[in-house]
Amino acid sequence: MGAQDADIRECELTSGRSPATITVAALIVLVCLYAVFEAALKALGQEPMVASPETWWHWISTLPGNLEPAGQGAMGLAAALFGLVLLLHGVRRGRRARHALACEDAVLIVDDQVLAAGLARRARADAGVGQGQALVTVHRERVDVQLSPTSGTPIDPAMVVAGLEDELRTNLVEPAPRVFIRVAARGVIGQ
User: Fold this and answer.
1) What digits encode the pLDDT tens for the residues 70-89?
2) Helix 18-43 vs helix 53-61: angle between axes, to the nearest 10 degrees?
3) Residues 6+ apart with CB under 8 A from 106
4) Alpha-carbon distance 160 to 156, whole Å?
């Protein structure tokens, strides 16, 4: 795989930072619009909507003011957590709900929902259950399978896991997730 293919693969599997940037920018714009609105109300001689600009500036300049130590700690903790979330989001790239399929000539990306549908079909076939009796969710490093057996018909979980691992191996899914299965204790009426 060439460098360009690796870049394309990385771009398709990871999400950008645009949503967080847009959210923070929108919050800043809203605060600025509110400040301009309050200033315009004051300039027109109207009553402030919440508080006058002088009240806000006085409150900000006298922080922490008469605030109790618990309130100061809560504000500091909230500011630290908000900063930590933004820092982690800036440093660490997000992940899209997709997996890559190994291919020498191209970059093949499959959505996790499509992968889950294929694995659910295989799980239903291996377990001998009907439509709606197998629920598969695919995450980055794991595949969770929930099976509801048909009443009176046992399911061999090891056989289903082996079949799903074979399906993942056949399709060359990268990174290969681990398969976890849970069989419901009560069966359903067969379809």
Assistant:
1) 888 898 899 999 889 888 87
2) 120
3) 5
4) 7
Whether 174 and 99 have beta carbons less than 8 Å apart is answered as yes
**DSSP-assigned letters across all residues of 43-110:** HTTPPPSS--HHHHHHHHHTTTTT--HHHHHHHHHHHHHHHHHHHHHHHSPEE-SEEEE--SSS-EEE
Torsion of CA 112, 117, 121, 127, to 10 degrees: 60
Q: Which two tokens stand for residue 107?
A: 């970059």
Domain assignment of residue 21, given as a range: 3-95
Domain boundary at 75, 95, 115, which?
95
What is the pLDDT, as a whole number, of residue 182? 92
pTM as predicted? 0.61
Q: How many domains does the chain have?
A: 2
Q: Which of 95, 120, 145 is the last residue of a domain?
A: 95
